[in-house]
Design brief:
The protein is 22% helix and 17% strand. It contains 3 helices and 3 strands. The model has no long low-confidence stretch (mean pLDDT 81).
Length: 105
């Protein structure tokens, strides 16, 4: 179901993907809108929409109005939110211990 989102230039769009179907299952279950808000406190008080992209092993979030009136009017250090995905990706979360078995190989 598509939700109408007005004034697209005000919105930030973050996609996160993984490499395997097992990782995608974890990502899909783990990364709820509430957990996303914990990782990105700036999203408090604005609408956040989550979209599943199973063919890409990804989830996508649209943060409505995060960029104020748009890039030309934004006072954010990253006015186009291009680094926002990397910021979210840099956050620490608990991963399944089984994934660590091959990490040192």
């Amino acid at each position: 179901m598509r939700r109408p989102v007005r004034r697209q230039g005000r919105n930030a769009n973050i996609g996160l993907w993984v490499r395997t179907p097992a990782e995608h299952e974890w990502l899909r279950d783990y990364l709820t809108v509430d957990r996303f808000r914990e990782l990105l406190p700036e999203s408090a008080g604005v609408a956040v929409y989550r979209y599943e992209l199973p063919n890409l092993l990804a989830v996508n979030f649209v943060i409505v109005g995060l960029l104020g009136n748009g890039v030309a009017d934004s006072t954010r250090p990253d006015p186009q939110a291009k680094g926002l995905g990397e910021y979210v990706r840099s956050r620490h979360v608990d991963l399944p211990a089984a994934w660590l078995a091959g990490a040192g190989s």
